[in-house]
Amino acid sequence: xxxxxxxxxxxxxxxxxxxxxxxxxxxxxxxxxxxxxxxxxxxxxxxxxxxxxxxxxxxxxxxxxxxxxxxxxxxxxxxxxxxxxxxxxxxxxxxxxxxxxxxxxxxxxxxxxxxxxxxxxxxxxxxxxxxxxxxxxxxxxxxxxxxxxxxxxxxxxxxxxxxxxxxxxxxxxxxxxxxxxxxxxxxxxxxxxxxxxxxxxxxxxxxxxxxxxxxxxxxxxxxxxxxxxxxxxxxxxxxxxxxxxxxxxxxxxxxxxxxxxxxxxxxxxxxxxxxxxxxxxxxxxxxxx
Amino acid sequence: xxxxxxxxxxxxxxxxxxxxxxxxxxxxxxxxxxxxxxxxxxxxxxxxxxxxxxxxxxxxxxxxxxxxxxxxxxxxxxxxxxxxxxxxxxxxxxxxxxxxxxxxxxxxxxxxxxxxxxxxxxxxxxxxxxxxxxxxxxxxxxxxxxxxxxxxxxxxxxxxxxxxxxxxxxxxxxxxxxxxxxxxxxxxxxxxxxxxxxxxxxxxxxxxxxxxxxxxxxxxxxxxxxxxxx
Lengths: 289, 230
Hints:
The complex is a heterodimer.
Chain A: H1 9-12, H2 20-42, H3 44-83, H4 88-103, H5 106-124, H6 128-138, H7 148-178, H8 182-190, H9 195-225, H10 238-248, H11 253-285
Chain B: H1 5-42, H2 47-61, H3 65-87, H4 98-124, H5 127-135, H6 140-170, H7 182-192, H8 198-229
Helix pairs in contact in B: 1-2, 1-4, 1-7, 1-8, 2-4, 3-4, 4-6, 5-6, 6-8, 7-8
């Protein structure tokens, strides 16, 4: 008798003849992967020649991204504290920071740091290279310093990226802190904790968990936006090296195309695992407690 | 710092801002259209429709926009040249320029993001609505166009406006190819006036803010209204 109520799998979802195309699709996937492998195999000499350089560029991309996200976290944390401050001037300054930065393209900001603010600061007498060089001299290892051009480009690149992402992280941290229910604060107060203890021991640990998924997403876009540093010159990250290699081979259009494809592939290999990680974190932590 | 340069630069910058608006105004509807197609493909029951949409979205979202724009500008012209060479027709690569490549790159990139917005919007309409429509005898097409879509659109407008603002900012990257929008104008003026760049940057930033801030305020106002209505 039970069988009358359980329907077979076939009955539940009528199979369309279009399902045949699924197998065509699988075949196409295999074909496309094979084609890609063959395409790369054709350029194996070029890959062997350029891969070490490009991987070094990828390393610099990761270094830039990690140092920028650390600095951006500091900017974002200060910004969030400003936005949640009791003092109106702090709130206004933080709000202006967020609104202005989020309304301007990051490319324009990077230009402004590298070609505008940098020269103004140099006229005032602030040169990050000299400071770093003197510091390294104190450590008796100033031969490790790169050239002034490269060092300043990387320095202002990191500053530009982190100043931009600090504005986005301000909002992430603010919403994270605000998402902790007010009852938690009240419970802390009634237990006799002062406001600093409540922030450190009750609010921040809970807000931290909520902010991780958006934070991870912003880190991925930061890795991608670090490619924009190729436009200011001097930062030898992945996109800069890709563009340089492609431009140098402009007489051979197919080779030029190959460099752009290969550079994009390397970026994909950096960003896609991070995207998977971010999605995993989102499914684990997104719901909060 | 000599701020009188702003007066000389303003006409050029306004042309650049106009071009930025044109880029967005053309690319965004294209991105919406392509995104809708991708979202519908992605919700199909056939893997030969779902798979390509998924692969497209993952690849686009995991590569930097600047890499895509170079790839389209230089790569597409190479591919078109090869095709027209082998077919023996006129060189199709002449059609690849700052306008076409920039608009195509923006549309292709943003389609992947809009597809996710569409998908989330469709999912946010309760399944009970679909069940009710089907039990009333509507076909699945009627259900989609008359029941699901009208309810999903108001929810999708805020993320769309958000993405429009992002596109406004990302259109700056078109300046790395031959796109003549605001950032490209800024760049030429910056190179010409190496010692007096700060006013130029301030002018460009002010123009970008004049474009993006009102849009974001309208979006926020609409979102508040929407939340009150729900």
